[in-house]
Amino acid sequence: MKTAIMQPYFFPYIGYFQLISSVDTFVIYDDVNYIKGGWINRNKIVSKSTGNKPSYFGLTLEKQSSFKKIYDIKIKQRDFYNDKLKRKISSCYKKSPHFDKIFPLFEEVIDLESNYLTDINYCGIKKVCEFLNINTKIIKTSRQFSNDNLSGQGRVIDICKKLNCAKYINAIGGQEIYNTNDFRSNGIDLKFIKTIPIEYEWWNLSIIHQMMTFDKTKLQNMLNSYKLV
After folding, report:
1. pLDDT in tens, 60-80
2. CA dist., res. 78 & res. 188, Å (int)
3. Total of domains in the chain
4. Is pLDDT at 199 greater than 80 in this prediction?
5. Pairing of strands 137-139, 61-62
6. How is the chain classified by DSSP, letter by letter?
7. What span, in angstroms and rounded, lies between the C-alpha atoms of 167 and 109?
């Protein structure tokens, strides 16, 4: 079985979904500390309304802190900020070819009846996977593994062993922190996913931009534009 583990990002870019589609089980890693300035509650879009320059969009958080676990982070003043967020996406993409199909999906996620960031992100990831016909099993929380005493690579290896994982696939940035021999000694084949450059300037923006811009066939072709190293 192939497994990947990632923090729950807010409508992440296509590479995140390449990772999900490359494995059998994907673990949402939300019992680690929240990181300010990352991709957990925000991402980037671009359109004529942003001057064709990348612009942030995202969720406004209540008492965010790098000392809190991701699963403890709540959304602030949901009704007020949700309306602002939906207006921004509508303004940016209302003339996009797939707006009528994708905007309701976006609204459904944003209007989820939960005040917790991890629930919103999980819902967004699931909805995009369903839309793209990605059938990977997604485990909502890593808390079930009861290994808070471990950290870093040791914790990842422990999760893999508990899932009877024979191959662990990580984002390419993990090459600097994970040791292939350590995984191999635990019976796990470690690989890294590397996105093959896509001939499109904004391929690394939020998946929302790609879904608004391209049809499903094009998106599914983009999903396969990677290699394992």
Report:
1. 998 888 889 999 999 987 767
2. 42
3. 1
4. no
5. unpaired
6. -EEEEE---SS--HHHHHHHHTSSEEEE--SSB--TTSSSSEEEE--GGGTTS-EEEEPPEES--TTSBGGG-EESSHHHHHHHHHHHHHHHHTTSTTHHHHHHHHHHHHT-S--BHHHHHHHHHHHHHHHTT---EEES-GGGG--TT--HHHHHHHHHHHTT-SEEEEEGGGGGT--HHHHHHTT-EEEEEEEPPPSSTTTTS-HHHHHHHS-HHHHHHHHT-EEE-
7. 31
Half-sphere exposure of 107 (CA within 13 A, CB side): 10
Write out pLDDT tens, residues 129-155. Answer: 999 999 999 998 888 999 988 889 999
d(C-alpha 91, C-alpha 68), whole Å: 34
Domain enclosing residue 205, as ranges? 2-228
Q: Which long-range contacts (CB under 8 A, 24 or more apart) does 82-91 make?
A: 82/110, 82/111, 85/57, 85/58, 85/59, 85/110, 86/110, 88/57, 89/45, 89/57, 89/208, 91/49
DSSP per position, 140-196: S-GGGG--TT--HHHHHHHHHHHTT-SEEEEEGGGGGT--HHHHHHTT-EEEEEEEP
**Residue 19 · residue 171 · CB < 8 Å:** yes
- Residue type for position 192: F
Q: How far apart are the first and last CA of the chain?
A: 18
Nearest 5°: phi and psi at 202? Answer: -110, 30
Confidence of residue 215 (pLDDT cuts 50, 70, 90): very high
